[in-house]
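REQUEST FORM: STRUCTURE PREDICTION
Request ID: SP-0412
Submitted by: Lab K.M.
Chain count: 1
Length (residues): 144
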Amino acid sequence: MEILELESFLPYRLYRLADAVSREFSKIYRDRHGLTRPEWRTLSGLGQRGTMTATALGEQSAMHKTKVSRAVAELERRRWLVRTTYENDRRVEHLALTKAGLAAYGEMVPLAKAFERELLERLSTEERTAIVSGVAALEGALGE
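STATUS: Completed
RESULT:
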């Protein structure tokens, strides 16, 4: 029987790397605002795109609907998010950040950009170019 060495299996390595980077970045928004990963993804998705439905937010952030629902409820409890029912279909709610939510998002954007910059500065110029183009190529190949 053939053995799969996970340590050299690219999908496993990419998952581990993404998780490690996400955990490292989570320290910033957890320490700053006490946010969980789903709450950060919800805040940042709405901050970037404005009004969205929970379904669209889940698709954009690759989160399960229960995680989106919990994150929305917590951000609403903090008064960082409001829900507006769609007039033509009462089952659809549009989510948007409040003034306080936008302020928190605005505070986090430069921290997120600094984190990304510092992460990439750990690499040589050639490595940075390779990782950025390699990720883009994989995304293109997978239709992402």
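NOTES: The mean pLDDT is 93.
Reviewed by: T.R.
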